[in-house]
Amino acid sequence: MKIEKAKLVVQGMKEAGINFAVGVPDAQFIEVYKLVAQDPGIHYVGAANEGEAAGIAMGAWFGGKKPALVIATSGLLVATYHIARINLLHEVPILILIPYRGDLGDPRWMGMYQKTTEPALRAMDVPYRVVSRSADIIRTVRECNETARSWLRSVAVLFTEEALW
Q1: What helix, strand, coil percent values describe the chain, rounded to 5?
Q2: Where are the domains of the chain?
Q3: Which fold has domain 3-164?
Q4: Which of 10, 51, 123, 161 lies deepest, with the highest CB count within 10 Å?
Q5: What digits encode the pLDDT tens for the residues 8-64?
Q6: How far apart are CA 155 and CA 68, in angstroms?
């Protein structure tokens, strides 16, 4: 991931009012994790797994924070049960940021994720947007967070290879 693209993701989080982020670092979003961990305006918590991270984000919301869950594409599948419970039973607005592996243009064959990511989000009733241009990162993060807060539900942003590299 290019550092200038990671800076756009973090800038989008800040413009959206995110002040708490939790995740499990992965290679595709590593620059985002580094920047968030260093940012004094965002409290970052690293978690042992994505299900735990979703629970921490939910607790942060109940503690008055504005959380983002930053996870790998594979991490979405790990956290599916937890995100579904948060979204369907508790109406907690968590912004979920995911590098979209397996989308067209991904240099590695990650077809499983292309076949499972969007269907998993739909099954959990999590609205989402796919960002394929870096010029759309900040606006999309901000708009998706606004939607999460007004709808009281989790909303995801998927960043394609084209947007991040």
Answers
A1: 55, 15, 30
A2: 3-164
A3: Rossmann fold (3.40.50)
A4: 10
A5: 999 999 999 999 999 998 888 899 999 999 999 999 999 999 999 999 999 999 999
A6: 10
